[in-house]
Structure formats: structure tokens, C-alpha cells
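Now read these lines:
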Amino acid sequence: MSSFSRSRLKEQEKDGYDRKRNTRQERAVKEDLPRILLSFKDFDPNQIPPGQSFSEWEANKTLSALYEKFRHVCELNIVEAKQQQVIKVYGAFPDKSDFKPPTYLQDDDIQWAVITNIKGQKGRLAGHMIGNVFYVVFLDQEHRFFISTKKGT
């Protein structure tokens, strides 16, 4: 090592120069959010129609699309599902709906939601969220849970 290099190294040591000081620190990995779980505990078979039964979805060849959607949804956490617009949380029960809230789900704090785009844009699962659990309440193949006006008409 030349005398110039040694003297420069000594100056750097005096100034508190540290090679590590200018390196990027690794970011701490944020805690993973729990993945979404599905429950049929609150499924309401008494509102068919406007909802449908699983056998109707099977006859319409929608049940296999529903299983694929389940697989996809259960790979996501709630933040990812909302960002990808797989789950849409409405909060209160929608004013414009062909469905009625079941008598066993009358709490004002329930976060009503849908899992969207099951075999096309209309097909949905309507239900509610508690934490990372989506409770399926209705099968809604015709988009009757949250009736909205058509855009551009």
C-alpha cells in the first residue's frame, strides 16, 4: 500500500469513515397478513330466488368456476384481494337489493361484501367479512345483491 493510500486511510478513520455507513440497510419484512378464509356457516338457502342453489350453479357449469375462484381468493390476504378487486366491501347492507338481510344477521356493524367476477362479470358471492374470514350468505349469479344503474345509459 502506498504512503498516499495509508495517509488517506488514516484520515478516513479519524473522520469516522465507515464503509458500512454508506450501504443500504435491509428493510425489515413487514408481518404477513393472514390469508382469506371462507365459511358457509351463514349461508341462507331461504332466499332462492333471487339467489341460487349450488345445484343450480352446477347445472349452469358455474360451480367449477366458483371452485377456481375459491382457490384464488384463499391465496390472498384482504389487502391484496381489495387491490385486485376480487373482494369489494360495501359496509352496510345495500339499499338497492333483491335480497333481504337474514334475521340472524341484523347487526349494524356487519361489513357486507362480495367476491366478484365468478364466470363473467355478473356472478358473485355475497356475504360479510369478519377479519380475514368471508362468510358466504348468498349465491348471486345475476348481480342482484347490489343493484347498480348501468353506466353510460
